[in-house]
Amino acid sequence: MLKERVATQTITARSGGEGPTLDKDKVEKHLGRAIGESSWTILSVIFENPSISNREIAEQVFLSVEGVSSSLRRMYKAFDVQSENKQNMKVALLTKIVKISLDP
To answer: What is the pTM of this model?
Structure first.
């Protein structure tokens, strides 16, 4: 929870008071390939609520929980996201995506 709050404060501070947005073009440029629509939708849902469970994500994006988990694992690998605590992986992924989106 603390890491999530710190990440949110950092994102808000960097964005100049206006809420940050995810930039799909910058994310795809960073990856060197297009990001799938379901993966982008999952990222958008996590962006709105970083502490959301995979089950809740699945309900919002109309995928199975296994589909959401699989998509998240692929994104963790693609963005080289690692965390000491597996529960913080979504926050670590979101932090990396927002940093990529905010880079000029």
So the answer is: 0.77
3-state class (DSSP) for residue 18: coil
**CA-to-CA distance for 65 and 8, rounded, in angstroms?**
26
Greatest Cα pair distance, the chain, in angstroms, is 37
**DSSP per-residue letters across 75-98:** HHHHTT---SSGGGHHHHHHHHHH
- Tell me the pLDDT tens digit for each residue of 34-92: 999 999 999 999 999 988 999 999 999 999 999 999 999 999 999 999 877 776 899 89
CA 39 to chain centre: 9
φ, ψ (nearest 5 deg) of residue 99: -60, -45
Nearest to 103 by CA among 38, 43, 26: 26
